């Protein structure tokens, strides 16, 4: 069902937001939720939410709403986080450490399982139970742990080289935090998570 | 011209990406650039780029391309970063430090001018020439420095309280890195920059 449809990136980016709130509801033993409740909580138009979720089939029941657990399961399937996705990170600076500390939030089978850095003084440091490894171990470790996603938190000048090593090691997708556009083969998906971009696009919405 | 149009968030988010590359061209004394060159470098469809830039008027000349400096000036105007936009940050942990270190990249008049933290042991610490201040100084400092954008890098449990203090102090927009949805009055723009969301939406693009 989802395979033949092209879902817009905007929708794909909203699904984890829905998922987080649904997980909160699940914890509180809430069994159903309406698109109105979702919309109110997430500051989104309920019609937009219904449209987003309808992409994946008819989950909601009129007058009752959505079954929370079923919706969680469906979104996890759609996002492919219903199975384990090992993640590796290169760059054990402030940002890299901050992201490793997020591991606690990554309940949905996505976990940073290996951290690497090029600087000798960082090697062996412990971040959230992960020992920082040298770059020479990147490729064998990624293959051994079946890492599928790579995160880049190195300075701009080193980002392309790290991306190349990720690609050679068989990583399928990259989340790049370095403030530079990295080039990879077409079959590799790259998201640029760039602080400057976030901040500059926010400025657009300021009043004169 | 730009005032009456509603520009989609997707376009607003691409403009800083164009701007970064144009700034690189400017540094290399390149005077014109085609949508093909932009598209190749940024991994975007040239037609998409032409459409994005056409929103703001006709800047490109057929067969010649876009005037780099003029386009830089225009995008800066559209994003409102042609004037100074002071930014404040709350949460001097790993992520907060990483963002302060980005200050060097924020050439376009957006600068973090104040950093706050609730923990006494962080107060007075120096991050990239900024001294961490206590929360009691948030409101007076924001008013004194005319801060317009607030960044939240505190744990989820404290994010809403920080958002409230930003709003009370007169901040117009918030970039929230805490993994929680914060609620603010309608006139305040909030962007959620959430690592989990980035990672989960990336998983969608993995093969089965």
TrEMBL record, chains A, B:
UniProt record, GO biological process: negative regulation of DNA-templated transcription; response to redox state
Major location category of this protein: cytoplasm
Keyword Cytoplasm (UniProt): yes
GO molecular function: DNA binding; DNA-binding transcription factor activity
Location of this chain's protein in the cell: Cytoplasm
Binding region for DNA: 17-56
Name of one Pfam family that matches: Put_DNA-bind_N
Protein name as it appears in the record: Redox-sensing transcriptional repressor Rex
Taxonomic path: Bacteria, Bacillati, Bacillota, Bacilli, Bacillales
């Amino acid at each position: 069902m989802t395979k033949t449809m092209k879902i817009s990136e905007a929708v794909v980016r909203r699904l984890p937001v829905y998922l987080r709130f649904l997980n909160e509801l699940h914890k509180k033993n809430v069994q159903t939720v309406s698109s109105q409740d979702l919309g109110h909580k997430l500051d989104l138009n309920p019609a937009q939410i219904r449209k987003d979720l309808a992409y994946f089939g008819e989950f909601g029941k009129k007058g009752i709403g959505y079954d929370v657990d079923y919706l969680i399961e469906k979104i996890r399937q759609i996002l492919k986080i219903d199975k384990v996705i090992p993640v590796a990170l290169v760059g054990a600076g402030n940002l890299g450490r901050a992201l490793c500390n997020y591991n606690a939030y990554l309940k949905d089978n996505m976990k940073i399982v290996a951290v690497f850095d090029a600087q000798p003084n960082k090697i062996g440091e412990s971040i959230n139970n992960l020992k920082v490894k040298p770059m020479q171990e990147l490729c064998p470790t990624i293959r051994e742990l079946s890492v599928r996603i790579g995160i880049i938190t190195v300075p701009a000048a080193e980002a392309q080289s790290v991306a190349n090593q990720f690609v050679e090691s068989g990583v399928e997708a990259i989340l790049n935090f370095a403030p530079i556009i990295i080039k990879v083969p077409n079959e590799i998906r790259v998201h640029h998570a760039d602080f400057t971009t976030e901040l500059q696009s926010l400025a657009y919405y300021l009043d004169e």
